[in-house]
UniProtKB/TrEMBL annotation:
Cofactor(s) named in the record: FAD
Record: residues binding FAD: 46-47, 244
SUPFAM superfamilies the UniProt entry points to: FAD-linked reductases, C-terminal domain (SSF54373), FAD/NAD(P)-binding domain (SSF51905)
Pfam family, one: Amino_oxidase
MF terms in GO: oxidoreductase activity
Descriptive protein name: Putrescine oxidase
Domain (Amine oxidase) ranges: 27-455
Organism: Nocardioides aurantiacus
Coiled coil, from the record: none
Family note: Belongs to the flavin monoamine oxidase family.
Record flagged with keyword RNA-binding: no
Amino acid sequence: MTSQHLPGDAPTAPLDRDVVVVGAGPAGLMAARTLAAAGRSVVVLEARDRVGGRTWSDVVDGAFLEIGGQWVSPDQTELLGLVDELGLSTFPRYREGRSVYRTPEGEVVQYDGLELPVGERTAAEMRRLTALLDDLAAEIGCHEPWAHPRATELDRISFHHWLREVSADEQACDNIGLFIAGGMLTKPAHAFSALQAVLMAASAGSFSNLLDDAFILDRRVVGGMQSVSETMADRLDVRLATPVRTIRTTADGVVVESDHVTVTARHVVVAVPPNLYSRISYDPPLPRRQHQMHQHLSLGLVIKVHAVYTTPFWRDAGLSGTCFGATALVQEVYDNTNHGDDRGTLVGFVSDEKADRLLELDPADRRAEVLASIADYLGPQALEPLVYHESDWASEEWTRGAYAASFDLGGLSRYGKDQTAPVGRIHWASSDTAAEGYQHVDGALRRGRAVAEEIAASA
């Protein structure tokens, strides 16, 4: 039965467990669930006052919003299997009708199918670049990209500059870059390597899958993605609002100290984003290589914008609500209407340097600019939502960015093999270090299960 609770004023008596898990996101909860099923005693310590990590659903001004991660694609079998096992269900994202593309010159064009409505020369170049990236993703793969003979070469050049080395079509490069830079890693394409881009594509099965919004953004969980974590947590011992401060390694195991409870255990699973590893003190200190590696990993920056309307007005105009514009402020827009809701919801994304500028504005001016950008795609009705909300994960104390961590130039080939290597009895689990499902809930679940199985096999 559940033991999910907030701490009282007085410290809790020390605990003795087989394993302590730091972080109650999907990775940590899957690790705890798997270990508990294997007969191990487990406690989960979570800094926030809720479970779910980077998945979070909330009601804002009467509207149910998925503030964090939410989509499920057909290849995410770990997540789909768990959803079914937990008795949850999914529903398809609305995508009937024409999509909208905003050209670099500001022209808005409606189109059918997956190919953006660009000139034939640019379209042909985009197909060529897509095939090139598909080939690299298939050849290099997502499990050990750092071990490939071309790893160093591809890791020393930014994705921006690599694209322009292999193509002279600027619009094609910008459009291809959008689907990894803005759409996934949420960093400027000059800030991460071509190898990191190939890993992103390989983790989704291919670069073509990233271009296919009907694939990569296929379904949502009824009741929100956070409900997956909430349901897992229902039968686990989870201590909320309990940030871990110190992990001490002893001759017999570990001692994990938080503000409210100290846990003695044989193993600890650190299931938080890599940028938060250094929020914890380690005694003895982590090895030099771990310290160096953590300084080369960082999260991106994206603002997820929610706009709720009386009706999904774009559908009446024969539009799907899917919009793209590599040079627009809001580079992506999708129909995000909730299951069984008569109202219409749009979700849009403003990433990397565009988000920097936007966050310098006061809230009213920021809202006006965002809605004007959405209205460029879908018309003036977009200017007047019933509910407007911005998810700014970079301001979250226990996240500090979105969607996930990636390496800077040269970091993946240099440190990739060390990402998941245990340090004694300290183990690491997060979507940021997954192969399949990298930076998705599916990847978090895979890493949580894998770490738990390693621990169970060792004891």
